[in-house]
Amino acid sequence: MKNMNVFNRYCLVFTILFISCKGYSQKNTVVPVQHKVTLKEAHKGDLEIDTLLLDSYGLLPENIRQFYMESRAVFSENTEANFTDAKILESAKKHNLALIGGPMLGNLQKEQVTVWLRKHSETPITIKVLNIKDKSEHKYFKNNIIPGVEQRIVLDGLTANSEYKYQIYENEIKLAEGEFKTAPTTKEKGLFKVAFGSDFHKVGLHNPNLVTQILKRNPQVMLLIGDIAVDDRENKINLHRSDYLLRDMSKPWRDLSANVPLYTAWDDHDYFNNDLSGIPDRFTSDDVEAVREVWYQNWNNPEYKGEGIYFSTQIGPVEVIMLDTRSCRTVKERGQYGCYLGIEQQNWLKETLKNSKAPFKIISSGTMWSDAISNGKDSWGTWDTAAREEIFNFIETENIPGVLFISGDRHGTRAFNIPRPSGYVIHEFEAGTLGGVPGPEAIAKDATNQIFGYGGTEIIAFGEFLFNTKAKEPQVTFRLIDEHGKIVEKHTLLYNQLTPRK
Asked: Could you give the 3-state DSSP secondary structure of residue 316?
């Protein structure tokens, strides 16, 4: 610090304020849009458009802007570049950015949570975690850091269902901070809140108004179901990394990821391009492995299963099951059983459902479960109706209770009942309006089983499940909440409504 000139000190102060995760995100004021970027422009994603996205709700501190511009140039010019590139690390050092990614919370459990981050130097860090109620403190020390390589630090030894604050330090300088609440034990009765949504499409990642409302609702976790941070980069992995850099420079994104543990799955635009899946024409199996690898590096999920990016984990009363509905497809077998999830993932899903001890289960699909919108375009209905029927039938015959289905892809937010011949009704909720981008019709032509529907640009909103296990009969309440905090929809389902009829 003693050798810093005035400009560098000025930049460091701005940087710490920028990444402290407690800026405008908790204020009630509405931040106006400075640059409105369309979905078509976001898909194009050239330097001018991505810079407008970065400044879409206000200018960044100049040192962060310069780091982004210099690092993006490295990714654009070098197809092999990654975050360990010497030019990127030197730029971060020059502009006093100790963290070039994160913190991002994930993999929440009853006694621990995982913090993901990326540093430009090998300087060790200390994470201080404070129990808000009893003021007990834990300290975690991380050394052996490889500059530019993502780090996952497990904060363990915590107390279940407890609120914590954490701070990340390097040489006694606070780099970032945030809050979280550990998961309850499986036996605890109470309330548990899960936020979810899809289709950020880069344009929504920078929206402080939406992030403010998510944080004000205090969800313990959030599920993001595709089209999140990368847009149509095909097999250009360097540009995938460039889009993740854009994500990590966003102040609203940092506010969200530092305070709400995130669970993520991809859809077509994160994968290669619109409606692409499996091994598309002009791509190879090596391309699929490369895009999976960059995904692994830039998210903070529990351990993946099989060859895809699918996984499951129990968080309190909820088993979260996030499917890979892109990379496991077999394109040449479209319409045949097993072509959508692949046989391995299909069997894994059934085993996971059968073995789950959680009273509630959420199964995510990047694309919609029902066929009422766009005639099942690029979804179950035009790919693998036999496998979908097998899943639905398996839930009934095995008498698996508490299952909720969530989906994305079809810009807009909708909910459907899917009635079964037995009288059991499957419930699907879609909240594909995180980015507020245009899409297909809000209401299906045959809306007999549709609960509600809003167009992609009609509202910017996220979904929320509030699980109540202390009620006489357990129940879950769905709410749709817009970027101004208005509860647009509210629907409560009792446990017996989510239980197959014997």
From this structure: coil
In sequence order, what are the beta bridge partners of 474?
none
Hey, which bits of 408-459 come out as E strands?
412-419, 425-432, 450-455
* 439, 467 Cβ separation under 8 angstroms: no
| Whole-angstrom distance, CA of residue 431 vs CA of residue 412 | 7
**Which residues are registered as beta bridge partners of 452?**
415
Which amino acid is residue 110, in one-letter code? K
How far apart are alpha carbons 62 and 59 in whole angstroms?
8
**Which stretches of 158-316 are DSSP H helices?**
208-216, 237-248, 251-259, 268-271, 285-298
Closest by CA to 374, choosing from 444, 464, 326, is 444
The three-class DSSP label of residue 116 is strand
pLDDT in tens, 409-432: 999 999 999 999 999 999 999 999
CA end-to-end distance (rounded Å), the chain? 70
Identity of the residue numbered 277: S
Residue 454: strand pairing partners? 413
Report d(CA 163, CA 150) in Å as an integer.
Answer: 26
263 membership: H or E segment, kind and range: strand 262-264
pLDDT in tens, 210-257: 999 999 999 999 999 999 999 999 999 999 999 999 999 999 999 999
Distance of CA 320 to the CA centre of its chain: 13
C-alpha–C-alpha distance, residues 306 and 440, integer Å: 33
Q: Do 250 and 19 contact (CB within 8 A), yes or no?
A: no
H or E element, residue 487: strand 487-494
Calculate the CA 318 to chain-centre distance: 17
Q: Output phi, psi for 140, to 5 deg.
A: -130, 135
The candidate with the shortest Cα–Cα distance to 276, out of 238, 331, 322, is 331
Q: Which two tokens stand for residue 273?
A: 């391009």
Contact present, 222 and 104 (Cβ < 8 Å):
no
Distances in Å between the Cα of 327 and the Cα atoms of 262, 269, 344 are 21, 12, 12
